[in-house]
């Protein structure tokens, strides 16, 4: 599982789409040559070097799927837990 969170509330995001795309391209380059994602959580940085979010990988897909199913059964979204 791969989880990405980016806070776009600073000056580097004046051109929001371009900066998000740049961050995602950098992330794609980092993981492109991995055979398998390892469990980790690492920061994502904007053009100015500020930490603006993180990406988290996990191998706990069955447990996560169960949590997602439970959230949907309650009428919610599995992504509600991401809120700050």
Cα separation of the termini:
20 Å
Gross morphology is globular
Strand order of the largest sheet: 1-3-2
Secondary-structure-based class equals alpha+beta
Helix coverage percent of residues?
Answer: 25-40%
Task: Please state the CA-atom Rg, rounded to the nearest Å.
Answer: 15 Å
Largest sheet: 3 strands, antiparallel
Number of E-type strands: 3
User: What letter string, H or E per element, gives the SSE order?
Assistant: EHEEH
**Average of pLDDT:** 83
* Relative strand content: 15-25%
Can you count the helices? 2
User: Low-confidence spans: pLDDT under 50, at least 5 residues?
Assistant: none
Region (Disordered): 58-84
Could you walk me through the main structural features you see in this protein, from its secondary elements to its overall organization?
This protein is of the alpha+beta class. It contains 2 helices and 3 strands, in the order βαββα. A 3-stranded antiparallel β-sheet has the order 1-3-2, with helices on one face. Strand 2 and strand 3 (51-57) form a beta hairpin. The chain is globular. 6% of the residues are buried. Residues 58-84 are annotated as: Disordered.
How would you summarize what this structure contains?
By secondary structure, the chain is an alpha+beta fold. The chain is built from two helices and three strands, in the order βαββα.
């Amino acid at each position: 599982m791969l989880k990405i969170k980016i806070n776009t509330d600073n000056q580097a995001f004046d051109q929001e789409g371009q900066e998000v795309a740049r961050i995602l391209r950098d992330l794609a380059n980092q993981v492109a040559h991995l055979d398998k994602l390892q469990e980790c959580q690492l920061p994502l940085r904007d053009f100015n070097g500020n930490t603006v979010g993180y990406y988290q990988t996990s191998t706990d897909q069955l447990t996560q799927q169960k949590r997602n199913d439970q959230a949907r059964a309650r009428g919610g979204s599995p992504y509600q837990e991401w809120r700050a």
